[in-house]
Fold:
Amino acid sequence: MPLNIFYGLSRSQMDMFMTEDNPIRRQSESVTEESIGSASNYLNHGGMWSLSGMTERGPSKYSMSVSMYRGGARGYGRPRTAPPDLPSLLLDARIVYLGMPIVPAVTELLVAQFMWLDYDNPSKPIYLYINSSGTQNEKMETVGAETEAYAIADTMAYCKSDVYTVNCGMAYGQAAMLLSLGAKGFRAMQPNSSTKLYLPKVSRSSGAVIDMWIKAKELDANSEYYVELLAKGTGKSKEEISKDVQRPKYFQAQEAIEYGIADKIISSRDIAFEKRNYDEMLAQSKAMRRAAGVGPQAAPSGIR
Structure:
């Protein structure tokens, strides 16, 4: 009797396992809250670097503008502290941005932002903008855990504030599920955005067969949660969604609306997604920093 049948694993489940120590897993584990913030890059690297020079040891070729800042450049007017980073500015506008695969550091940041905004003013909506491939990359390799997406979904349901969702590029897999769970009537698509549904997948594993069996059971549970939450968001039956996602299912903007994942294509005239005056918000942020004694105004003489 084949081992996969003897231990209760189907052939497709056996095929899903790879070694634990693979480049994709190492890449996902290297993402931290600090590495996706701009403050550290501003202070340590000048704010940006050339991707053409990236190696496993980090950036090796910096752009000219960055090189100017390294080593004693503070005397030329560069502030001693980082400016407000983009996530902070967006947070002032009650915008939460999911712009990369769903890995633990991303989940930690998004959950914290949801909790703060809900505490700050539960009567105002929270805007979740999504441009994410979910828990897999473009090669359908797993880079994150489905449980991270479920933590975000549970936080969205926990918040008293309505959560307005926007697909501003792509929403694949678990990201599409989060898109569908936004407040009904306020789930928007950019005209050229795309959506794709696919079933969860685990990293392949070696070792004791019992460990592989446990991971197969975890995969079944994650798939069930995924279908259940999609059914809640789209209004379709679990049976229909289970059938549709046996193979990756791709939608253009209007097709995603017809399927029930979203409600409308976003328009510049849509008052629900009002534009913000970011110049005014930045001025307010600078005023707060001056009042707190932080920033170039607080720097010692000769360093401003």
In short: The chain is about 40% helix and 10% strand.
